[in-house]
Amino acid sequence: PQFKIQIITFFRKSSRGDFVFSADRLIRLVVEEGLNQLPYTECTVTTPTGHKYEGVRFEKGNCGVSIMRSGEAMEQGLRDCCRSIRIGKILIQSDEETQRAKVYYAKFPPDIYRRKVLLMYPILSTGNTVIEAVKVLVEHGVQPSVIILLSLFSTPHGAKSIIQEFPEITILTTEVHPVAPTHFGQKYFGTD
């Protein structure tokens, strides 16, 4: 418990440079674990020295979808691991008073219904935004069972809300804590 509080305090009190550095490290870890969840096939790789190595390659049909704006912070981490992966975007804003999420924009690869989706949203607080994003993906033919949510911090309430609505979805996060650092996007992009 003490460690969890220190992480949130660090994110609140650190310089923007330290914040971005630490956030990028966490993003990379979550992205790599998300990629580990995707289907792969075995293949033989010939090394530059001519030796054969039995390795693996991702099956075709994966993509990322970032929930704008804070989800865009995770795109570079995904591209660093998978250079040619396609990335879609969803813009969802929550009403300040009602906390209802509303979709304003969605752009996906045209064949998203055939792809496995890494949904990127770093701070999962109430779950409302992610639930609306998953609804949009479902409207485009994506099955919840092929969606992997990549998140840095999640509240128990937010994760529970998503799982209640979409029990087949996979959620990967670095931290589950009752208090989520909701200022992530502002601090990461320097707009705080």
From TrEMBL:
<keyword id="KW-0539">Nucleus</keyword>
<keyword id="KW-0328">Glycosyltransferase</keyword>
<keyword id="KW-0963">Cytoplasm</keyword>
<dbReference type="GO" id="GO:0005525">
    <property type="term" value="F:GTP binding"/>
</dbReference>
<feature type="domain" description="Phosphoribosyltransferase">
    <location>
        <begin position="13"/>
        <end position="177"/>
    </location>
</feature>
<dbReference type="GO" id="GO:0005634">
    <property type="term" value="C:nucleus"/>
</dbReference>
<dbReference type="InterPro" id="IPR029057">
    <property type="entry name" value="PRTase-like"/>
</dbReference>
<keyword id="KW-0342">GTP-binding</keyword>
<dbReference type="GO" id="GO:0016757">
    <property type="term" value="F:glycosyltransferase activity"/>
</dbReference>
<dbReference type="Pfam" id="PF14681">
    <property type="entry name" value="UPRTase"/>
</dbReference>
<dbReference type="GO" id="GO:0005737">
    <property type="term" value="C:cytoplasm"/>
</dbReference>
<keyword id="KW-0808">Transferase</keyword>
<protein>
    <recommendedName>
        <fullName>Uracil phosphoribosyltransferase homolog</fullName>
    </recommendedName>
</protein>
<keyword id="KW-0547">Nucleotide-binding</keyword>
<comment type="similarity">
    <text>Belongs to the UPRTase family.</text>
</comment>
<dbReference type="InterPro" id="IPR000836">
    <property type="entry name" value="PRTase_dom"/>
</dbReference>
